[in-house]
Amino acid sequence: MSSLIDSATAIMTSSARQLELAGTNVANVSTPGFKQVHSTRRLATMPTESFSSALEQTRARLDQGKLISTGRPFDLAVMGSGYLAVRSGDSISYIRNGQFVRSKDGLLVSTQGGVLQRANGGDLVVASQTPEILEDGVVMEDGHATGRAGVFEPASIDQASSVDGAHFDLGSSPQASDTAGLRQGFLEASNVDTGEQMVTMMAALRQTEAGAKLIQTYDELLGKAFATLGQAGR
Q: What are the DSSP E strand ranges found in the chain?
């Protein structure tokens, strides 16, 4: 009987997670650089593992989103598999959302307050309100190169993982990208497929109903067992 409850619990837990991630995806369909996230399940492989102990893993679909022209000088779309580095306090994180505004100190600040980093480390400072930012990240002001925005990638492609669809973990040794570039005046759209998310939500709801049905069946069987025992004891 316990295996039936384990199965029902696993189904309902997995369905709840799928609904949560699908909701996150739909909520971020208009967020630049957002990558669609989904859960995968590693099935139990050891005889002692129960179905409910299988590991849920969250992964992101990392394919390139469409580029949208904005004409704003501090909007930067990443082309290819690279990531922008931003500093929040003492922490560095990696993003694809290249929507920045220039602070009064010349820092380029993301929508979540992160400061854009240079290719060789440190905050990128831009004096001009209308710089030219080249594909390789070099910042041109009055005809002179004054800095270079960093575009980074993991040491190996399998080390790139999504934290939440908007922030990414590049492993222990991220490096400057030789293949990715920047497009000034553009933003990368999210790659969320809303139709696919609706299908995922419907499937998750059906799975939830199946899990609830299993629990109902368990309760009915348990009730019959108690009734039988009660009659036998008379």
A: 37-42, 55-60, 67-69, 76-79, 83-88, 91-95, 100-102, 108-110, 115-116, 132-133, 138-141, 144-148, 151-153, 161-162, 167-169, 175-176, 181-184, 186-188
